[in-house]
Design brief:
The complex is a heterodimer of chains A (954) and B (72).
Chain A: E1 25-30, E2 33-38, H1 43-49, E3 75-76, E4 95-97, H2 101-116, H3 132-139, E5 166-168, H4 178-187, E6 193-195, E7 202-204, H5 220-224, E8 230-232, H6 233-238, E9 243-248, E10 257-263, E11 266-272, H7 285-289, E12 304-305, E13 314-315, H8 318-336, E14 341-345, H9 351-365, E15 370-372, H10 379-388, E16 406-410, H11 414-417, H12 419-430, E17 434-438, E18 447-448, E19 451-452, E20 455-457, H13 464-477, H14 483-489, H15 492-503, H16 509-516, H17 520-532, E21 536-540, H18 542-545, H19 550-563, E22 573-576, H20 583-588, E23 595-596, E24 600-601, H21 605-615, H22 627-636, E25 641-645, H23 649-652, H24 656-664, E26 668-673, E27 685-688, E28 697-700, E29 705-709, H25 721-731, H26 741-751, H27 760-766, E30 768-770, E31 814-819, E32 844-847, H28 849-854, E33 862-866, E34 871-878, E35 886-890, E36 918-924, H29 930-941
Parallel strand pairs in A: 1-4, 14-15, 14-25, 16-17, 16-21, 17-20, 21-22, 25-26, 26-27, 31-35, 32-34
Antiparallel strand pairs in A: 1-2, 3-4, 5-8, 6-7, 9-10, 10-11, 12-13, 12-27, 18-19, 23-24, 28-29, 29-30, 31-36, 32-35, 33-34, 33-36
Helix pairs in contact in A: 8-25, 9-25, 9-26, 10-19, 13-16, 13-17, 13-19, 16-17, 22-24
Chain B: H1 3-19, H2 24-38, H3 41-48, H4 51-54, H5 60-66
Helix pairs in contact in B: 1-2, 2-5
Classes of the chains: A alpha/beta (954), B mainly alpha (72).
The complex binds iron/sulfur cluster (3 copies) and FE2/S2 (inorganic) cluster (FES).
Chain lengths: 954, 72
C-alpha cells in the first residue's frame, strides 16, 4: 500500500454542520443505514454520523450551514429535486440517498464550473495535499472541464501579503464564504465581506489590506478556507506538515489546544484543535502564529556563570553551572542563615516544573521562601474566593457562558487578553445576552460589531469596591436578594451583617458617586439587570485584583453572586480570567510561601506529616517570604540568594528601581529562562530554559482544566526544566530522581486531594480534566459549588471601601492605569521576538484629548510620564477610550519600562501590587528619561557574553 | 524607622482597615490570624518590636491584635 503523507497527521472529523444539542432524537435512513441523531441536525451531519461523507465545499461544522455551493445535493424520498443536505434538517423516517447517477452528474457539473475558474497549478500549490477543492474533484470523479480554462477568470487578482502570517490569493478563491462566516461567527470581528456580485464577487477585508483592516489575525478564516486562497506563510515556505502532536498554547490562561504540525522537528503550523475543550477549534494571533520566538536566535542554549554582574558571562557545562548555583546557595545559607535564600516559580512553566521548584525550596533550602508570579496578578483571587467559597478557583467552565443571560465584565479586557474566550462571549452577546462592563476605559467590548454593552460603568481607577458595594446596596435595599438561595446555601449570620452593612446610606450609589464617578442611576439600572436578568455571570481580571483593595473586590464580587443566587449552575458564577497559561496551576502546585499544593497551610500538622513522610525530610511550619518581602529584605541586606524560574521580575514587577536594587543587592541570582531577560542582567548563573515545544507536562487553565503539553522537539539546551530543578536539588543535597514528568504528576496526585484522580493516562484518555478530580469526581468537575460551597455555607464578607493611598494631587494630577494588548504578551519576551510587532512595536500612552490639549500634547509626541517612583518617556496617543484625568499604557516593551513608574503599593491581604492606580504627571519632552538611558547602557554592559576561546588553527 | 518597618506598619494598617468593619473582637482576632498566617517569623518579630506597637500608641486594633501575634 502506498504510504499516505498525512498518515501521522491528526485530522478531526468534519461533520459539515454543527451537531445540535437536543434531548429529542430523530431516526432516518441514509443509503440504507438507519441512524438516530439529535433533532435539528442536518442530513449532511447525520450522514457523517452514519459513516457516509457527502461531498461539500461551503459547509464545515464550525459554521452555520450556508447552502451556496450546491455540491452536497441528495435525494430524499417523497421530495422533489435534489435538496442541499447541509441546509436540510434530518427528520423522523426520512429516507435519503447520497449516491445516485443523477447526483453524481449534478455534482460533476458543479465541480466543472468551479474548476474552470481555478488555476490548475495543483502540483506547485502550497495547499497541495490539504485542499478540499482537490479532494472534491477527486470525490465526484471530475475528468474533464467542458468549458475549458480560457473563459473569463480571476487568475490575475493581486495577492494580499500584508499580514505577516498568512497570505490571500484571490485567484484561488471559490467564494464559498467560509472565511467571512468564520470571521463573523467564530471570531466575531466582522472584518471580511464579499465585494461585488455574481461572477465579480470576491472576498475583501473592507476597502483596505488585511493588515490595515479590523482583522485581528486570529486565523479563523485561514482555518476555514478549503483552498489555498487563505494560507499560512509558514506552509508556503516549508510545505505540508507530515505529523502532528496535540499540545497546549503557552500564552494565556484560556489554554487553547493546538495541533503542532511538524516536518521532523520543524514546526510548520499551529492549528487550533477542534477537540480542545477550552477553544473548540478557535485561536488567537498569539497561539496560532506567534511561536517563532521558540527558535529565535536570541535563545540562550548554554549554561553560563559569572562572579559579578558586571563581568561577561562565561559558557560552562551543565554540571559546572548547577554545582556553582548549589554551592553559592549553600554558602549563603551557612553565612546568612537558612532563610536568606528563596525561589520564584513561574506561571509559564508546567505544573510538574513548578511543583519541583517549590519542593526544592521546602525540602532542599529547608525554608518556605517560595512565591510565584501569581503574587502580582491573581493572589487576591486565591484569598478572596477561599474566604467566601472555600476554594481558590473560578466556578465555571468556559462553555458555561453559552447559558448566561447577563454578563458582568469587570476589570478585564477579554478581547485583548483572553481572545478566544472573548469570541465565545461575543457570540453569546450577539445571541441576546446583556452585557455590563465596569472599567475605567472604554474597552472593545463596550462597543464592537453587533455588540453593545447595556451599561458601561466607567468608574475611576481604584473605586471597584465602592462600585460593587453600591450595586449590592441596590440589590439589598430594593428587595432583589434571592432569599431562598441565601437561606439554603449561605451562612445566615454573615449574610445578615453583610446586608446591614451594604444597606447603609454611605454605600448607596448616590453616596458612592463621588468615589466612582459613575452616575447613580446607571449603577441602579445595572444592579437591577444583574439581579433580575436571568443567569448572571461575572468575569473579572487584573483590573480587579491589582489594587490595594484587590482581595476586598474579589470578596465583593463573590458576595454579589451569592446574594443573587448566581453560583452553582451553568451560565452563572464568578470567573477570574487568568493571565498566564499556568497561573491556576502554579497556585495549585503550592507555590505560595504559606501553603502546600492544594492550598493547605504549612502550619497544618496533618498535611505536613504527609509531605514529610513522602519526601523524607523535616519541613518548616512557618510561612515564608512573598516576592515583595524578598525584595524588601534584599534591599535591607538579609535576603541574599534567589532562583528565578522563567519569570522576568525586573520588567514585570512594579517599581522597577526597587526590584533591581533588591536583585543587585543579592549575592547569587540564578535565572532559568529562554532569553537573557531583564532579570538576567542581575544574575550570576544562567540556566537555559525550554520552550513549550520542548516541554512534556501539563498546564492548568482558568477553568481548572488540566491540559497536556507535549514535546515536539528536543530541548535546545539539552535538558528539560524539570531535570534541571531535580539536578539542582540533588546538588543541594536533596536527591530528586524522576525519569519522566508523569511520575511528578503521580506524586502531585498522591499529595493533593483535588488531584487524586489525575494521571497522564486519564488526561490522555479524556483529552483534559478539570480539578477537583478524585474519588468523588473521577472525571473532574466542570462546575463547582453545585449543591454546596466547598467550605460548606457560602460566607458573606464585609467589604468596606477604603480609598487607596495613591491619589491624584497637585504634583501628580493624573491617574495611570496599565494593561495589555492583543498582539503582545506580558513582558513581551516571546511576542516581541515575532512578527506580532507589526501591530504593536512600542508601548504608547493613551491620554484623553482634554488632558492632552491642556499640556500641548499631540498624538505621536514624545511625553514624559512621571510618578513618585520614577519617570519614563513614551509616545502619546490621544483617544477618548480613556476618561479625562486617566492615562493608560501597556508594559510589553522593556526599553520603555512602564513599571519604573508604578509604585510599591499593594493589596492589603496578599501584597499583590497596585498596578492599576498610580498618580502621575505627563509633559512633553524631547528625550528619553534618565532611567531609560541608563537601562539602554546596561542592556549592553550587563549582558556581555565572553567570546568562546579561540582554538588556534592546526 | 527603617524602610522595612515603615512597610510593615503600612501593611498592618491596611489589614486593620479591612477588618475595621467587623465587631471589635472579631476584628482583633482576624487581624492577628491574618498576620500569623501570612507573615514570616522575622516580619512578625519586627512588627511586635515597633515602638508604636510596644508602647500602644498605634491603631488600637493593631495594638490589641499584637497580643495574639506569634513571636518568631
Ligand atoms: S484572521 Fe480572524 S479577524 Fe482576521 S479576517 Fe480572518 S477571521 Fe477575521
Ligand atoms: S477565501 Fe477561501 S474561505 Fe474565503 S471565500 Fe475564498 S475559498 Fe472560501
Ligand atoms: S486565547 Fe490564549 S491560549 Fe488561546 S491561542 Fe490565544 S493566547 Fe493562546
Ligand atoms: S456544502 Fe451544502 S451547499 Fe455547499
Amino acid at each position: 500500500m502506498r504510504p499516505s503523507v498525512a498518515a501521522n497527521l491528526i485530522n478531526e472529523v468534519d461533520f459539515g454542520t454543527p451537531i445540535r444539542a437536543s434531548a429529542d432524537e430523530v431516526t432516518l435512513t441514509i443509503d440504507g443505514v438507519a441512524v438516530s441523531v439529535p433533532k435539528g441536525t442536518s442530513v449532511m451531519a447525520a450522514a457523517m454520523m452514519a459513516g457516509t461523507q457527502i461531498p461539500k465545499l461551503c459547509a464545515t461544522d464550525s459554521l452555520e450551514p450556508f447552502g451556496s455551493c450546491r455540491l452536497c445535493l441528495v435525494e430524499i424520498e417523497g421530495r422533489k429535486g435534489a435538496p442541499a443536505s447541509c441546509t436540510t434538517p434530518a427528520e423522523q423516517g426520512m429516507v435519503v440517498r447520497t449516491q445516485t447517477d443523477r447526483l453524481a452528474k449534478l455534482r460533476r457539473g458543479v465541480m466543472e464550473l468551479y474548476i474552470s475558474d481555478h488555476p490548475l497549478d495543483c502540483l506547485t500549490c502550497a495547499a497541495n495535499g490539504d485542499c478540499e477543492l482537490q479532494d472534491m474533484a477527486g470525490a465526484v470523479g471530475l475528468r474533464d472541464v467542458r468549458y475549458g480554462y480560457a473563459g473569463e477568470n480571476h487568475f490575475d487578482g493581486a495577492k494580499d501579503e500584508t499580514n505577516p502570517y498568512f497570505s490571500y490569493d484571490p485567484a484561488k478563491c471559490i467564494v464559498c464564504n467560509r472565511c467571512v462566516r468564520a470571521c463573523e461567527e467564530t471570531q466575531g470581528t466582522f472584518a471580511l465581506t464579499i465585494t461585488g456580485r455574481g461572477f465579480g464577487s470576491r472576498v475583501a477585508p473592507g476597502p483596505t489590506s488585511f493588515l490595515g483592516s479590523e482583522c485581528v489575525s486570529c486565523g479563523a478564516c485561514v482555518q476555514a478556507c478549503p483552498t489555498a486562497t487563505l494560507i499560512e506563510k509558514s506552509v508556503i515556505a516549508h510545505g505540508q506538515p507530515e505529523h502532528s502532536v496535540v499540545t497546549t498554547c503557552a500564552y494565556c490562561g484560556v489554554g487553547c489546544s493546538f495541533k503542532a504540525e511538524m516536518q521532523g522537528d520543524r514546526l510548520v503550523r499551529m492549528a487550533p484543535y477542534k477537540d480542545g475543550a477550552a477553544n473548540e477549534g478557535h485561536s488567537c494571533v498569539k497561539g496560532r502564529f506567534a511561536w517563532g520566538y521558540a527558535t529565535h536566535r536570541d535563545r540562550i542554549t548554554k549554561p553560563m556563570i559569572r562572579e559579578k554582574i558586571t563581568d561577561a558571562w562565561r559558557e560552562v557545562s551543565w554540571d559546572e553551572a548547577i554545582a556553582r548555583a548549589a554551592s553559592e546557595f549553600r554558602r549563603i545559607q551557612t553565612k546568612y542563615g537558612r532563610e536568606s535564600v528563596g525561589a520564584i516559580t513561574s506561571s509559564r512553566c508546567t505544573n510538574e516544573e513548578v511543583f519541583l521548584v517549590q519542593k526544592l525550596v521546602r525540602a532542599a533550602f529547608k525554608n518556605n521562601n517560595v512565591d510565584t508570579c501569581a503574587r502580582v496578578c491573581h493572589a487576591p483571587t486565591g484569598y478572596g474566593l477561599s474566604q467566601t467559597f472555600g476554594t481558590s478557583a473560578g466556578t465555571q467552565d468556559f462553555k458555561s457562558v453559552d447559558k448566561s443571560d447577563v454578563i458582568l465584565v469587570i476589570g478585564a479586557n477579554p478581547t485583548d487578553a483572553h481572545p478566544v474566550f472573548a469570541s465565545r462571549l461575543k457570540k453569546r452577546l450577539r445571541a441576546g445576552a446583556k452585557l455590563i462592563v465596569a472599567d475605567p476605559r472604554r474597552i472593545e467590548l463596550v462597543r464592537s460589531p453587533h455588540v453593545r454593552a447595556a451599561h458601561h460603568l466607567q468608574l475611576k481607577p481604584g473605586a471597584n469596591v465602592a462600585l460593587l458595594n453600591a450595586l449590592a446596596h441596590v440589590i439589598v435595599t430594593e428587595g432583589l436578594v434571592n432569599e431562598a438561595y441565601v437561606r439554603e446555601r449561605c451562612d445566615a449570620d454573615d449574610f445578615a451583617s453583610w446586608a446591614r452593612f451594604v444597606a447603609q446610606e454611605k454605600n448607596s450609589p448616590e453616596s458612592m458617586e463621588q468615589h466612582t464617578g459613575v452616575p447613580a442611576a446607571d449603577v441602579r439600572a445595572a444592579a437591577r439587570l444583574y439581579a433580575t436578568g436571568g443567569n448572571a455571570a461575572i468575569y473579572y481580571g487584573l483590573g480587579v485584583t491589582e489594587h490595594s483593595q484587590g482581595s476586598t473586590t474579589v470578596m465583593a464580587i463573590a458576595n454579589l453572586a451569592m446574594a443573587t443566587g448566581n453560583v452553582g449552575r451553568d451560565g452563572v458564577g464568578v470567573n477570574p480570567l487568568r493571565g498566564q497559561n499556568n497561573v491556576q496551576g502554579s497556585c495549585d502546585m503550592g507555590s505560595f510561601p504559606h501553603e502546600f499544593s492544594g492550598y493547605r497551610h504549612v502550619s497544618d500538622d496533618a498535611t505536613r506529616d504527609m509531605f514529610e513522610s513522602l519526601w523524607g525530610v523535616k519541613l518548616d511550619n512557618e510561612p515564608g517570604l512573598r516576592i515583595p518581602n524578598m525584595l524588601d529584605e534584599a534591599v535591607e541586606g538579609a535576603f541574599k540568594g534567589l532562583y528565578v524560574q522563567g519569570e522576568d521580575i525586573a520588567q514585570s514587577d512594579p517599581d522597577t528601581q526597587h526590584v533591581t536594587a533588591g536583585l543587585a543587592a543579592m549575592q547569587c541570582v540564578v535565572v532559568q529562562d529562554l532569553f537573557l531577560n531583564e532579570t538576567a542582567k542581575y544574575a550570576h548563573v544562567f540556566l537555559p530554559g525550554a520552550s513549550f515545544l520542548e516541554k512534556d507536562g501539563t498546564f492548568t487553565n482558568a477553568e481548572r482544566r488540566i491540559n497536556r503539553v507535549r514535546r515536539v522537539m528536543q530541548p535546545l539546551g539539552g535538558k528539560a526544566e524539570w531535570q534541571v530543578a531535580s539536578e539542582l536539588a540533588t546538588a543541594l543535597g536533596y536527591p530528586m530522581r524522576y525519569e519522566h514528568p508523569g511520575e511528578i504528576m503521580d506524586e502531585i496526585a498522591r499529595l493533593t486531594p483535588g488531584f487524586k484522580g489525575v494521571s497522564y493516562a486519564k488526561i490522555d484518555a479524556m483529552g483534559s480534566v478539570q480539578w477537583p478530580c478524585n474519588d468523588a469526581a473521577p472525571n473532574g468537575t466542570p462546575l463547582m459549588h453545585i449543591d454546596r460551597f466547598v467550605r460548606g455555607k457560602g460566607r458573606f464578607m464585609l467589604t468596606e471601601y477604603v480609598p487607596t493611598a495613591e491619589r491624584a494631587g497637585a504634583l501628580f494630577p493624573l491617574l495611570l492605569t496599565t494593561g495589555r494588548i492583543l498582539s503582545q504578551y506580558n513582558v513581551g519576551a516571546q511576542t516581541r521576538r515575532t512578527d506580532n510587532n507589526a501591530w504593536h512595536d512600542e508601548d504608547v500612552l493613551e491620554i484623553h484629548p482634554f488632558d492632552a490639549e491642556h499640556r500641548g500634547v499631540r498624538s505621536g509626541d514624545l511625553v514624559a510620564l512621571a510618578s513618585r517612583s520614577g519617570e519614563i518617556s513614551l509616545r502619546a496617543e490621544i483617544t477618548d477610550r480613556v476618561q479625562p484625568g486617566v492615562v493608560y499604557t501597556t508594559f510589553h516593551h522593556a526599553v520603555t519600562g512602564a513599571n519604573v513608574v508604578t509604585t510599591e503599593n499593594s493589596d492589603w491581604a496578599t501584597n499583590c501590587p497596585e498596578y492599576k492606580v498610580t498618580a502621575v504627571q505627563v509633559r512633553r519632552t524631547n528625550q528619553h528619561s534618565l532611567w531609560q538611558e541608563r537601562n539602554a547602557l546596561e542592556d549592553v554592559s550587563l549582558r556581555r557574553i565572553a567570546a568562546a576561546e579561540l582554538v588556534p588553527a592546526k | 524607622m527603617s524602610a522595612q518597618s515603615t512597610k510593615l506598619m503600612t501593611m498592618a494598617g491596611q489589614i486593620a482597615d479591612f477588618f475595621r468593619a467587623y465587631p471589635q473582637d472579631v476584628a482583633i482576632r482576624s487581624i492577628a490570624e491574618h498576620i500569623n498566617k501570612f507573615w514570616t517569623r522575622k516580619m512578625r518579630d519586627t512588627f511586635l518590636d515597633l515602638p508604636e506597637i510596644r508602647n500602644g500608641t498605634s491603631d488600637p486594633l493593631l495594638v490589641a491584635a499584637a497580643k495574639s501575634v506569634r513571636k518568631g
